[in-house]
Structures are given as structure tokens and as C-alpha cells.
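User: Some background: our group keeps a shared notebook of sequences we're curious about, and every so often someone picks one and asks for a predicted structure to add to the entry. Today it's my turn. The entry only has the sequence so far, pasted here. Could you supply the structure so I can complete it?
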Amino acid sequence: MGRSGGLYRAVVVEEIVKENPAISIVVPVYNEEESVDLLYHKIRDACSLLGASYEMIFVDDGSRDRTFEILANIHKKDPFVKVVRFRKNFGQTAAMAAGFEHANGELIVSMDGDLQNDPADIPKLLAKLREGYDVVCGWRKDRKDKLISRRIPSMAANWLIGRVTGVHIHDNGCSLKAYRASTIKKVVLYGEMHRFIPAMATLTDARIAEIVVNHHPRRFGTSKYGIGRVWRVALDIVTIKMLSGFSSRPALWFGLFSFPWLVLAITALLAAINLYYDSPLSEWFVTFTVSFLFLFLAAHLVALGMIGELFMRAADSTPKKTLGSITVLEA
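Assistant: Of course. Here's the predicted structure to add to the notebook entry:
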């Protein structure tokens, strides 16, 4: 099981370098055969200005076109390019997690593979990171996406994420970010959690900054995301709130959920007592049954919280393991 929280099978093509690079660039790609070669050259040009050693890690998330073939050819020419290939599509979060896992740099930059993020912003992100921050987020202030299907849902999601988590970032969905490896490697990613990295990083007391970055219209292909992801984002926001506010006290989390049901149970029970003397037996029995069901639900939620507490204690005392099947091919 990788850091993405799910089993994935991958082929990793990499060159063994004696000295670890200072900077790792992680790029998830999916069906980007038209853009990936141009993106590689743009990243290489940007990194040549850094004055530090670097590596590029392209994660092919189960592409069905020539993306992996092109990346494999790039790797043969450039020993500082690693290619991670998933056997099927697992999503951007899993791809980012795999990229972070295979990154050897002390500083890590992530970005999309569709050329909408600008590699020329990499030095600017790293400069801000070196000011003492642990995570630097890109802000696509002048975003070149469709208004109805992308920008409006994104603005609503960013506002809601800020309200729920207390981490007020203008653009949580921007993949162009820079991290200290010591911070991002502590963040466990799964589901659709890549857009919640700033909030997740606060669990490690990370210092977070945000800077304006360039954003370009999509030149090739079509977006892999649409309005249909809104529901998944909403569910992940609930998960983030639980992890950020109650991860160490699941009993408190479930206890809060049980409280309204307990109130309803007490209310229904009082109503049943009043009906016992003045109403037919059938009305009293129905009301009493409803009160019992509400009470049972409240008790069930409390019990889940206690089980969660026991699970947390057991997890803390269990040695961590890395599972899954990953094949490493040395070039």
C-alpha cells in the first residue's frame, strides 16, 4: 500500500544516481502524449537556472496513448528523469503520492502535466520556500479555465475549505506547489486529497505561503476533471475536518454527531410518557419505539467513536509497513 492509501501496481524506470539531487520535480500525467515532450524541455530550461542538482519524476497514471513511450525515450536521453508507470488509472492523488515517494530531493515541486502550469514559476516558488516556509502554494489569479464548469466551483470549494479547515488559500486546486521533503513525506494522501495538501500539512505544523503564478489555456487534449467531481470534493472536505479537528479524538467526533439524536430520543421519550395517560396505546407505542430508535442510533455513534479510539491506540503501537507491488527497472 503506497502513500495514496490504495494498492497500485507500477513500473518504475529510473537511473541510480550516486548523489541525491537537491530538487525533485513531480509531474503526474494521463494521456498527455502531445504535451509531455514540450513540458519536459520547459522544465529542463527552468531547472537550468536554479544552480542546483535536480531530478524530474513523471508519473504516468495509466495512460492509454503514447505518453509512456515518449517518457521512456526521454529517460534514455536524460539520466535525471524518472518515470513511474501505473498499470491502470488511479487518479491524480495516487500519482502525486507515488511521485513524492520516489523523490530524493530535499525540496519538491509538483505541477500538472498539461502545460497550463508554467515551469518558469519553479525558481520563484523555491525562492519563497527558502524564506523559511514548508509549503508554498501557487495561486492562479488569472485562471484560464471555463467559468461555469471550473472557476465558479473552484471558488466555492476554496471558500468552503478555508471556512472548514481554517487554512485560507485562494487556490487549493493549483497543483503547482513547492514543499520541503521533510514535510510532504509526512502527509498521507488518498482519495482526492491532493487538493487539500495545505490543510493536511498543518497537522505537521507546517508554515504555508502563497504566491501568484502564471496559468495558460489548455493547448492539447481535454480536461480530465469536470463538474461531476463536486460531490467527491464535498465528501473529502468532511474527511479533512475530521482529520484536522478530531483525528486524535474520534470519540469526540462521533459524540458530536450523536448529540442531536440523543436530544430527539429524549424529546420523543417525554412525548411518549405524556401519551401513556391520555392517548390510545398504539400512539404511545409508536412514539416510544421512535424514541428507542433515536437512542439506539446515538449509542451506536458513541460506540463507533470508542472503537475509533481503540483503533487509534492500536495503530500508534503497530510498526508501519509499506505494502504493494512495485517493480523497479534500472536503466
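Suggested note for the entry: Residues 250-316 form one domain. Confidence is low (pLDDT under 50) at residues 1-9, 14-18, 318-331.
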